């Protein structure tokens, strides 16, 4: 999958070809059916396949003052939900909800890109609801309340990628810089989402018990990127520029590990992305449930540097682009 200024091919109708082989590749658009039922599976892996099926729906709201992230996860024998509000003026997380529970009863994620997902525990609930051309996102917990609508009527180019990942196969859909309406309440303070944009991440795959990645992402109208190492690696590295979607090669992340506030250098091997990430603060969690463990550290900050348009070769400055660098390790 070498970089190319030519458009990505359209997304296939299914994840798996009729002969049982995954439709590996990077595409533009949405895969119609997120089902692995036709996948040819080695006999030993067939026995534990259901436990390796991981799905999640995630959204990040980027605002001039704050950043909000919400995720619902269904992973084999466990499920989880995360939501937090990062106040950029305070430089810290001001509200957060994190919980784990059984899949099916407490956590459920639809086999559909940007579709329904729900996590419930007692009176607390995190939910994604697809209503034709919008995605409704709600969080109802004493710690944090959110009610938002993400406009999907003109989603722009959606990245769809299908790759071996680290066990059998994995599919991801990503879209960004989407209009938002709604509000979030953090610490009793009502914060409107006017002027914010949303980035969506939908995942569905058959993954190894141990999964790790480092990922950087940021979006604003006309410019965005997703870069990762580990897990799917270069299969999900992409650049959104001027309404077009381009693939990127391997990404590298360099940082002084002894100083959590030191800048990160984020680059791609093809030279199309060269950025410095300046952290403003971070949020971390460590969950354990029924033998599953998950550790995540999400740094909120801004990217500065440049990207190069793959078709024209023109260099574009990137200044104060709000985004995340995430380190993740799970045993699920």
Overview of the structural elements:
The chain is mainly beta and 332 residues long. The chain has a single domain, classed as AttH-like domain (AttH-like fold, Beta Barrel), CATH 2.40.370.10. It has one helix and 23 strands. The chain has one helix spanning 43-48, and strands spanning 25-28, 53-62, 66-75, 78-87, 92-101, 107-109, 117-121, 124-131, 134-141, 144-151, 159-163, 169-186, 189-192, 197-206, 210-220, 223-229, 238-241, 244-247, 251-254, 264-268, 273-289, 292-308, 315-331. The strands form two sheets. Strands 1, 2, 3, 4, 5, 6, 7, 8, 9, 10, 11, 12, 13 and 14 form a 14-stranded antiparallel beta sheet that branches. The protein is globular, with a radius of gyration of 19 Å. The mean pLDDT is 90. It comes from Crenobacter luteus. Pfam families: DUF2804. This is DUF2804 domain-containing protein.
Order of helices and strands: EHEEEEEEEEEEEEEEEEEEEEEE
Tell me the count of domains: 1
CATH architecture tag: Beta Barrel
| CATH fold assignment | AttH-like fold
**Helical content class:** under 10%
Number of strands: 23
The CATH homologous superfamily corresponds to AttH-like domain
- Which regions have little confidence, pLDDT < 50, spanning 5+ residues? none
Describe the largest sheet: 14 strands, antiparallel
Instruction: Report the sheet-strand fraction.
Output: over 45%
Mean pLDDT: 90
Mass-distribution shape: globular
Number of helices: 1
**Briefly, what CATH class?**
Mainly Beta
């Amino acid at each position: 999958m070498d970089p190319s200024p030519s458009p990505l091919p359209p997304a296939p109708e299914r994840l798996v070809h009729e002969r049982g082989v995954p439709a590996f590749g990077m595409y533009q658009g949405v895969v119609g059916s997120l089902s692995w039922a036709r996948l040819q599976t080695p006999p030993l892996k067939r026995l534990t396949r259901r436990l390796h099926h991981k799905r999640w729906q995630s959204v990040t709201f980027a605002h001039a003052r704050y950043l909000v992230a919400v995720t619902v996860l269904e992973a084999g024998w466990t499920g989880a939900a995360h939501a937090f509000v990062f106040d950029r003026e305070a430089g810290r997380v001001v509200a957060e909800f994190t919980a784990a529970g059984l899949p099916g009863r407490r956590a459920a994620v639809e086999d559909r890109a940007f579709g329904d997902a729900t996590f419930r525990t007692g009176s607390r609930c995190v939910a994604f609801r697809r209503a034709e051309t919008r995605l409704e996102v709600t969080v109802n917990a004493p710690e944090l309340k959110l009610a938002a609508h993400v406009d999907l009527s003109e989603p722009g180019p959606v990245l769809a990628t299908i790759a071996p990942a680290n066990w059998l196969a994995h599919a991801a859909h990503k879209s960004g810089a989407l209009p938002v309406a709604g509000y979030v309440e953090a610490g009793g303070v009502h914060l409107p989402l006017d002027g914010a944009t949303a980035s969506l991440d939908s995942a569905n795959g058959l993954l190894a018990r141990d999964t790790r990645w480092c990922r950087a992402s940021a979006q604003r109208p006309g410019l965005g990127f997703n870069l990762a190492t580990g897990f799917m690696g270069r299969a999900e590295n992409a650049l959104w520029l001027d309404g077009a979607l381009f693939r990127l090669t391997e990404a590298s992340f360099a940082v002084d590990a002894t100083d959590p506030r030191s800048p990160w250098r984020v680059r791609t091997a093809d030279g199309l992305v060269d950025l410095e990430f300046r952290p403003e603060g971070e949020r971390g969690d460590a969950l354990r449930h029924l033998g599953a463990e998950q550790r995540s550290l999400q740094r909120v900050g801004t990217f500065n540097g440049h990207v190069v348009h793959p078709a024209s070769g023109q260099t574009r400055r990137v200044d104060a682009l709000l985004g995340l660098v995430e380190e993740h390790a799970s045993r699920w």
